Amino acid sequence: MIELRHLRTLIALKETGSLAGAAAKRFVTQSALSHQIKELETRINSAIFVRKSKPLAFTPEGIKLLKLAEDILPKVMETENELKQGLNDENPLLRVGIECHSCFRWLMPVMTQFRQMHSHATLDLSSRYLFDSLDALGSGSLDVVLTSDPVPDQSIHYKHLFDFEVKLVVATDHPLAQETYVTPEQLTGYPILSYPVPIERMDIYRHFLEPAGITPGPQIHCDLTLMLLQRIACKDGIAALPSWSIKEAHGLSLTSISLGEKGLTRSLFGAYRPNNTKGLLSQNWLELVSQEGMKK
At 245, phi and psi to the nearest 5? Predict the structure, then answer.
């Protein structure tokens, strides 16, 4: 029998284009995912995708199953939510914690979609807990958290949403602007423009400068993304931002550069407590975030 987990795996394969990507999205090992695919292929007596195809290509049988998944899964999610509504509050509040200051703008379409799907629910999006968000989730002060730094906890489930690149942003007439990528050594002493967070929590420091033993210049705080971008354009300093933030430049003379030859890639996860009465609402929200993030 074809199961919902098989259909979810097909969707993950389509969205990521690889076994490794699908395994990460489904939060299982690649060997477990391969076993699940083999099980499905045995049941239908046919392959579902062409082996060693790049990008991944579905067989006719796989395409038919994929269409089934795209038709069935949204209905399942909607029905589950409707059934759950009958057991819980008529007007539930979903409290979402965000550790990233630059997430708010690109999450606006997701908020609109969520409210259209769940008009009975109230969505509270907040960064008030910042890097204590997972503690707030564990204590019940939040229902779901968007984070790039998952911490193992048996009471919390993590859903891989999507990967994104953190890039160096400089003015177009900055000395580094013509570089294809920069090394940690090239950033020695440059002032770092950032949101008001400790530098020890910043990706550029933890995953790029600190491992190379490089000490950055002074840190300059900015509360808003637009203010941050404007100060970069004025050559007050440099900044490392997620790729989606750079799209807010609004005509400013800025350029983005890879951090290292291979770039600095990070993953965004959705954390939630599966036994929470709002577990299904949390999963619905995270699915919408994942779909929006794949467009970035």
Answer: -70, -30
Number of H helices, E strands in the chain: 10, 12
- CA 207, 191, 243, 142 torsion-angle sign: positive
pTM score of the predicted model: 0.67
pLDDT tens across 246-275, in order? Answer: 777 777 899 999 999 999 999 999 999 877
Which letter does DSSP use for residue 238 in this model? B
Which of 55, 76, 220, 197 minimizes the C-alpha distance to 131? 197
3-state class (DSSP) for residue 54: coil
Contact 220/202 with Cβ under 8 angstroms? no
Distance CA 196, CA 224 (A): 10
Ordered alpha helix ranges (H), the chain: 4-16, 19-26, 30-44, 60-85, 103-117, 133-139, 203-204, 225-233, 243-246, 279-293
What spatial distance separates the first Cα and last Cα of the chain, rounded to whole Å?
Answer: 36
Question: Which residues on neighbouring strands pair with residue 264, listed in sequence order?
Answer: 166
Tokens 């808003």 locate to 224
Measured from the Cβ of residue 241, the count of other Cβ atoms closer than 10 Å reads 26
Work out the average pLDDT over 74-95. Answer: 66
Structure token pair of residue 52: 């060693």
Contact assessment for residue 105 and residue 120, using Cβ atoms and an 8 Å cutoff: no
The count of other CB atoms within 10 Å of the CB of residue 5 is 13
Burial 208-237 (b: 16+ CB within 10 A, else e): bbbeeebebeebeebeebeebbbbbbeeeb
User: Angle at the Cα of 177 (from 171 to 182), degrees rounded to 5?
Assistant: 120
- Token pair, residue 164, equals 């994104």
282 backbone dihedrals φ, ψ, rounded to 5°: -60, -45
At 78 the pLDDT is 63
Split at pLDDT 50, 70, 90, the class of 86 is very low
